[in-house]
Amino acid sequence: MRRYLLVSVLGLAAIWGGVSGRTWAAPLEQATSAPLPQSVQAVVNGLDAAASQKNLDSVLAFYDPEFKTGDGLTLEILRKQLPTFWQPYRDIRYRTTVNRWQQQGSDWVLDISTTIEGTGGTSDRPQNIRGNLQATQVIRNGKIIRQDITNEKTTITIGTTPPTVQLSLPQTVRTGEEFSLDAIVQEPIGNAILLGAASDQPINAQTYANPSPVKLELLSAGGIFKVGRAPQEPGGRWVSVALIRDTGMVLITQRLRVEKP
User: Fold this and answer.
1) What is the 3-state secondary structure (H, E, C) of 110-172?
2) Are residues 29 and 140 both part of a single domain?
3) Residue 35 contacts by C-beta under 8 Å, 6 or more apart in sequence?
4) Mean pLDDT of the chain, nearest integer
5) What is the C-alpha separation between 168 and 3, in angstroms, rounded?
6) What are 141-196's pLDDT values in tens digits?
């Protein structure tokens, strides 16, 4: 089960490169929303097209050979994990919008929003994915050299009638701060059995490559309600929930940024 929760977010983070709480790129203080130069826009469009075609070699060609993020994502991890993520989906589509951009010397710093949508599974057990992220991306000489993901959320549904879930979770917390996670099933549960689980783990090379298992529990209420406390060290974390009933399941992963006060 944890594999689903990991690869859901990996499909976005791998394509766009997740980074920890610090921002590598300089702030977009003089950013513009004018059209990008054609050569830079071609990188954005080309990566979307290659990922939508599930063309691994073409995807990797858009990254600088020394590409490595602050939380340990490398080209080698992308090479190993992306096929696993793509495999369940017959059709998958990545769409990126450049909201603002700024040239900083030889670097092009982009403020982007990316959406991913995929469909797969079988007629009696469909599987769908939808993810959204916002990030700052840096391109140099036609290659992606680094990126800082600021917001990220991915939802996978499996089955003919998966639960509809409203997730309430902050995007940012301070170190040591208490926070709440509520994942509420919108449909009446009645006498149906509802299983669920929640997990919280740091985003690093180990969790990219070796996802941890998660234990499902029988839920007595129509959702998951947890109170957590942020660690004392800043950085990015993946908070994931899974809710399962007889007609389907929903798996949601959201990035939580832990920042210093």
Assistant:
1) EEEEEEEEEEEECCCCEEEEEEEEEEEEEEECCEEEEEEEEEEEEEEEECCCCCCEEEECCCE
2) yes
3) 41
4) 86
5) 23
6) 999 998 888 889 999 999 999 999 999 999 999 999 999 999 999 999 888 899 99
Q: Which residue has the tokens 């929303």?
A: 33
Same domain, 148 and 172: no
The CATH code of the domain that includes 246 is 2.60.40.730
- Domain housing 6: 2-152
What is the residue whose two structure tokens read 């939802």?
155
Q: In the structure encoding, which two tokens stand for residue 217, read together?
A: 């529990």
Residue 26 and residue 124 in one domain: yes
- The answer to whether residues 54 and 93 touch, using CB atoms and an 8 Å cutoff, is no
57-66: pLDDT as tens digits: 999 999 998 8
pTM for the model stands at 0.87
What's the rounded Cα separation, in Å, for the pair 51 and 33? 25
Are 180 and 219 members of one domain?
yes
Boundary residue ending a domain (119, 152, 185):
152
